[in-house]
Design brief:
By secondary structure, the chain is α/β, with parallel strands linked by helices. Helices cover 47% and strands 21% of the residues. The chain contains twelve helices and 14 strands. The protein has helices spanning 8-20, 62-65, 107-122, 149-161, 179-191, 216-223, 241-245, 253-260, 264-297, 300-303, 306-390, 393-397; strands at 28-39, 45-50, 55-60, 76-87, 92-105, 139-144, 166-171, 197-202, 229-233, 248-249, 403-406, 409-410, 422-427, 430-435. A five-stranded mixed barrel has the order 1-2-3-5-4. α4 (149-161) packs parallel to α8 and α5 (179-191) packs parallel to α6. It is elongated. The protein starts with 7 loop residues before the first helix and ends in an 8-residue tail after the last strand.
Length: 443
């Protein structure tokens, strides 16, 4: 059997023709999840449609995209109507989508949103817990894939911007099985080595490619670090859980390196300006001090120091004389005070003696007067008792009289009682209960 020789383009064109003419794969309805979505400035949409086992590249031209009622995003589950063909330039099988409608979110995207919500409620995204970045980091560690474009971008940018820093690297897997565990271990290791700042970096990719940075263990490890972390994962449109937990999020790995470091040339320029300013201020201060020194040298005090001491000596002599005079006056006043104290003590003793004698006499007079007053009061009391006894109703009752009472009231008239009423009669030696038998009025 003789084989026919074909060019690549001829083979691709042949296959494309076969696919374009097969009715089974034209205007098919395909269900899948959006990944790697890109809206080109031309209006065309480029994305991958995938399920748990396979994926296929898709393009939706601007005319069809304009009729779509929504803009798909990473993780959306959709139904697409498409024609199956081959893109000749790359020989890649792809779907040419003519219509699309959403059917819900993909499993990975739902998992991402649930973890994002839960960590947000716990406060792991709170700006208040994020650590400030050092202004001039001298020890920087880069955690990224080995021999990757992201690693090259970060290292090159650090060397260009801040070459005086010591840059260390911890290579890790950045996607696939075991990547999240390696990233966590590298973060914990770097946190114990005294670095000023960490850079966690990776290039762009689909949500599946970046999923290691959406793992909960990575988020919680980053939240517990003492060293500030800058996360530069994917492109600007890619936002992972690690980006939200990190102390700073950079749009790209290069952006993370730029965020971590100042521009050495700018710092040097700033230092030069500060040095010049410092020299200017020092020279200005030196001129002022020289002027002040010259003024002191030319001053009268510096030329003739005794001119400063002589007024002070004169003042000292004057104060010494005043002190001596004051001392003499104090001595005279003290002698006068001692003399007056002696006289006052003598006079006080005499006055105390005289007052004591007078006080004794007053006591005698008071006692005599009290006795006289007491005797007079006793006599007056006896007279009053005698008169009281003489005028006492009880004394009158002793002469045969009585007091008549009815219901506790004295009876003064015959009109106040009635026949058969009881009366109480008070005599000098007791009481009588009486009954009125008859009333007889005096004419």
């Amino acid at each position: 059997m003789r084989n026919r020789q074909l060019s690549v383009s001829a083979l691709v064109r042949y296959l494309k023709g076969k696919l374009d003419q097969d009715p089974l794969i034209q205007r098919v309805i395909v269900a899948g999840e959006i990944s790697n979505f890109t809206a080109h400035r031309s209006g065309h949409w480029y994305f991958t449609l995938k399920d748990e086992k396979s994926r296929i590249s898709c393009v939706m031209f601007a005319s069809n995209a304009a009729r779509c009622k929504f803009i798909p995003k990473e993780g959306d589950s959709v139904l697409v109507q498409a024609n199956t063909s081959i893109f000749e330039a790359s020989g890649q099988l792809q779907l040419y989508v003519t219509a699309m409608k959403p059917t819900g979110l993909g499993d990975l995207y739902l998992k991402y949103e649930e973890l994002k919500r839960r960590l947000h409620e716990e406060g792991l995204f709170d700006p208040a817990r994020k650590k400030p970045l050092p202004q001039y980091p001298m020890r920087i560690v880069v955690i990224t894939g080995k021999n990757t474009a992201a690693r090259q971008d970060v290292v090159t940018t650090l060397a260009r911007r801040w070459s005086i820093a010591q840059v260390s690297e911890i290579p890790v897997l950045v996607q696939g099985e075991g990547a999240a565990a390696q990233i966590c271990a590298a973060l914990r290791q770097a946190d114990t080595l005294g670095f000023d700042v960490m850079i966690l970096a990776r290039g762009g990719g689909s949500i599946e490619d970046l999923w290691s940075f959406n793992e909960e263990c990575v988020a919680r490890t980053m939240a517990g670090l003492q060293t500030p972390v800058i996360c530069g994962v994917g492109h600007e449109v890619d936002v992972t859980i690690a980006d939200l937990v990190a102390d700073r999020r950079a749009p790209t790995p290069t952006g993370a390196a730029e965020m971590a470091t100042p521009q050495l040339a700018e710092v040097q320029s700033h230092c030069l300006r500060q040095r010049q300013q410092l020299i200017y201020l020092m020279n200005q201060k030196l001129r002022q001090q020289r002027q002040r020194y010259q003024q002191q040298v030319e001053s009268r005090i510096f030329q003739d120091p005794m001119s400063l001491l002589q007024p002070l000596q004169m003042r000292l002599d004057y104060d010494s004389s005043r002190l001596q005079n004051t001392t003499q006056r104090i001595r005279g006043q003290r002698a006068r005070l001692d003399q007056l104290s002696a006289v006052l003590l003598n006079q006080t003793s005499r006055q105390v003696h005289l007052q004591q004698q007078r006080l004794g006499q007053l006591r005698l007079n008071l006692n005599h007067h009290e006795k006289q007053q007491l005797m007079l009061r006793q006599q007056q009391l006896k007279e009053k008792i005698r008169l009281l006894d003489a005028y006492s109703p009880l004394k009158i009752l002793g002469r045969g009289y009585g007091l008549i009472a009815q219901n506790g009231h004295l009876v003064r008239s015959i009109q106040e009682v009635n026949v058969n009423e009881e009366l109480r009669i008070r005599l000098h030696d007791g009481q009588i209960q009486a009954l009125v038998k008859e009333k007889e009025e005096q004419a």
